[in-house]
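User: Could you write out the 3D structure of this protein bound to iron/sulfur cluster? I've included everything you need below.
Assistant: Certainly. Input first, then the structure.
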Amino acid sequence: MAGKPRSLREHVERVITDTLDRCTACGRCYQVCPMPRYSALLQDAPGERVVGEVLQLLRREPGRALGLEFVKICTQSASCIPACPEGIDPMLMLRVARMVALGALGEAPQMEGREEPQFFQKIDTYAALQLDERELLDWHDRRLP
Ligand code: SF4
């Protein structure tokens, strides 16, 4: 990837492109995940198929049940990260697929969940404020209950 991304949006799009280029849908990230055993839908599902459906989301194709379910159940255990033979961060892959599925990148939402519709605008606004460390701490402290 050439140069630093100019925005978070560009960074996310680069993650998508890179993942689609390199992921072989081998399913190892899925196989080491501790969560599918708790999902009736995923218990017997083959990893290749589940990850293939996650990749469909990244291609902005309509989501299918298994891919959406894997995205939904991710609790960010990070077990998948060392398992990927391609050096992809599958946890980030799922996070970005979740953004797609929730409509945060501009497509029609494909699942219910909390996602800030102005996520990118707010990130850009905070970045433009350029608060220093003290100002950030002060701002957070005021928000504590
Ligand atoms: S993210 Fe890595 S481990 Fe998961 S299916 Fe793709 S290549 Fe395999």
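The radius of gyration is 17 Å.
User: Perfect, thank you.
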